[in-house]
Amino acid sequence: MAATAAAPVWSVDPRTGKQREQVAVEATPEEVDTAVRAAHAARGALADRTVRAALLRRSADLLDEAGEAVIEAADAETALGPGRLTGELARTTYQLRAFADLVEDGAFLDVLIDHADPGLTPPRPDLRRYKIPLGPVAVYAASNFPLAFSVPGGDTASALAAGCPVVVKAHPDHPATSELCAALLHRAAREVGLPEGVVNLVHGFQAGIDLVRHPLISAAGFTGSVRGGRALYDAAAARPHPIPFHGELGSLNPVVITEAAAAERAEQIGAGLAGSMTLGVGQFCVKPGLVLAPDGETGDRLLTALTAAVSDTEAGVLLDHRMRESFLEGVRTRAALPGVHAPVTPGAGGEHTVSAGFLALPAAHLAAEGPHDLLLEECFGPVTVVARYTDEAEIGAVLARLPGNLSATLQLGDAESAGTDAAGRGARLLAELTPLAGRVVVNGWPTGVAVAPAQHHGGPYPATTSTATSVGGSAVERWLRPVAYQDTPPALLPPELREDNPLGLPRRLNGRAEGA
After folding, report:
1. Of 196, 227, 202, 228, nearest in space to 217 by CA
2. Is the whole model's pTM more than 0.70, yes or no?
3. pLDDT tens digits for 401-430?
4. Are 411 and 256 spatial neighbours (Cβ–Cβ below 8 Å)?
5. Catalytic residue among 285, 378, 394, 496
6. One of 88, 179, 248, 496 is an active-site residue; which one?
7. Would you call 285 a catalytic residue per the annotation?
8. 11 three-class SS
9. Separation CA 39–CA 214 (nearest Å)
């Protein structure tokens, strides 16, 4: 019986829907196995933190040097535009260099040493604890960030920083960009003396399933849909030896606008909301998808401003035609619900584009289970839902029904922001939003996730499947596990845990920061 030919992987132009070029073929189970085994064999090569930092920095340098070609390839496959992609490339290389700094600092190893104390009750043995890499990590690239959340993105950078080799499952929306970036990372590995197996790339739907099931994969990071992420999460949990699965699946990112805020700056809020919900043609994971706005005159002013700003937004191209059809069907279904109207109708802007818009309805329709529950699910693209509330009780009733989110936003009046309003509304609403999201934004907008040590990009399910962040230095913690050595002879201890601290690591001795 003749072997079945491997399925081709095509680069497609979302502006026309036409195939550009064949860039690869889908990986067979044998090829996935080869990639994972190459990653597994490269573990020891990543043990040296100095070399890891060099890899991250050289990867950033090579991406910057090839920036024009990288941006051209990504734009051809995603239609995100050179301006947006130039910023994304800068973010990507910044992440890589930031993780290099983190590796050199060494604080992420969380070194804790408790000396033996037989006088305690119970007596304490000598205990020395730090964190070690889990092993090869599977990374599932995102559609909407072909650089920052894909082959050279945060999951890859943080895993390499932890000392974990990576196998990336490329997203089908940008395979040529993925191949180009993987080649640059391979070159960086060679130039710093590491095997290319520290970063590996596979294509294909089945390859993604085979990857998460492979017995040598130790953890996985995913950014994508609820349906796809949940399937992989379940597969990771169903393995004979389950592994951590850090998935970002979907988020509504609610916004609450108080009556005081609308009264003070309706026009500013309306314009800001329009900019946030249409940024990147509404394809950001933190796009505000549900807005609680006051009924009455102040709310009307806000909607007038929102209508004007959204109407001025040009039609745009989504990442692929499948997403375009899903967006159009999602909008049609939502707009047909009773009590829903469209001040600006979102829809087909042309043969290959979509136009932005928003839907509005009374908040009371969302306060109890019913057909309007669809409006509490993410609709990927340039649309949001504005629910008009009549009192604070309706705000609470809607918030109580929301699933977990990456972000939640609160627009407050001046007195509410200062905590001087007699009702204490600002503090109360902040307390209501906090359980719903991993990041709470006050008097701003959620789009734009800064790469910073204090950042948290995650949230309760279905926003993510774990409590970890995928942005910021703390993202490295996903790929580490703690191990403690008890009464271990000094000559046998890892260098990180030796008494004389030969590596100069930050550490805590007997519960106190060393030197404090």
Report:
1. 202
2. yes
3. 999 999 999 999 999 999 999 889 999 999
4. yes
5. 285
6. 248
7. yes
8. strand
9. 12
